[in-house]
Design a protein that fits this description.
five-stranded parallel beta sheet; 5 strands; 17% strand
Length: 149
């Protein structure tokens, strides 16, 4: 799987997540402070680059980081077709995948430990989207919200 990943800051957590993704056999596309020679490292820009890569199918999914994760969530969700979820634990990641069909994982640089990040990734990659009729209707309604703007 191709994963777009971006952050405004390179930390032990971002490096550990990159290492974990590569160990799992994923190809990574780097943005912001994680990429060499990317002059645009501010979180709105790095997040929009990740979101655009996912929305245009240059990447299958994305992961973004910022200090709290809130700004990264807001910026990433501005791109049509993106359903970014700020996850502080594995159970939230599971719900985001099942019910929200989240395609971008958002992690807080401040609040996420490396151990919790691994648990979140385990759950994120092992949880399929729900395909039941009710849930698909909810995803359709989210897409309709994007079209109204």
């Amino acid at each position: 799987m191709k994963i777009a990943i971006g952050s405004d800051e390179r930390t032990n957590l971002t490096d550990r997540v990159l290492e974990e993704l590569k160990q799992r056999g994923h190809e990574v596309i780097l943005f912001g402070s994680l990429a060499e020679n990317d002059p645009e490292i501010d979180w709105p820009v790095s997040c929009s680059k990740v979101a655009s890569a996912v929305a245009t199918q240059k990447a299958d999914e994305g992961i973004v980081f910022c200090w709290t994760g809130t700004g990264a969530s807001i910026a990433t969700n501005k791109v049509s077709g993106i359903r970014a979820a700020l996850c502080h634990d594995a159970e939230t990641a599971r719900g985001a995948r099942i019910w929200n069909h989240a395609n971008v994982l958002v992690l807080s640089l401040r609040a996420t430990t490396e151990a919790i990040a691994k648990e979140i990734l385990d759950t994120w990659f092992s949880t399929p989207f729900s395909e039941d009729e009710w849930n698909l209707l909810q995803i359709k309604r989210i897409k309709q919200l994007e079209e109204k703007v």
